[in-house]
Design a protein that fits this description.
Elements lengths: L1 E3 L2 E3 L13 E4 L2 E9 L4 H5 L7 E6 L3 E6 L6 E3 L4
Antiparallel strand pairs: 1-2, 3-4, 3-7, 4-5, 5-6
């Protein structure tokens, strides 16, 4: 995560930007990025990650999951040719 001028750049470990709608894997489990929860926003507060923010994920078998910023190195984008 990079904060600059009140904007947040969220990137995967490979340097590509995280975008809403990305199909991802988290520890081998498939999901989709539903929302980027900005730190100190009402939405982040709603999902109990007010200070750090995070990613709201819809996991294939487990429902909604919040992955706080700082631990997103475990998330990888699924790329299909």
């Amino acid at each position: 995560m990079n904060k600059m001028n009140d904007q947040i750049d969220v990137k995967y470990e490979d340097g590509n930007f995280v975008e809403i709608g990305d199909r991802i894997t988290l520890d081998g489990h498939e999901g989709v990025v539903i929302e980027i929860l900005l730190p100190r926003s009402q939405r982040a507060k709603d999902f109990s990650c007010f200070d750090e923010g995070g990613l709201l994920l819809q996991m294939k078998y487990y429902g909604l999951l919040v992955e706080p910023f700082g631990v997103t190195g475990r998330i990888e984008k699924i790329i299909h040719d």
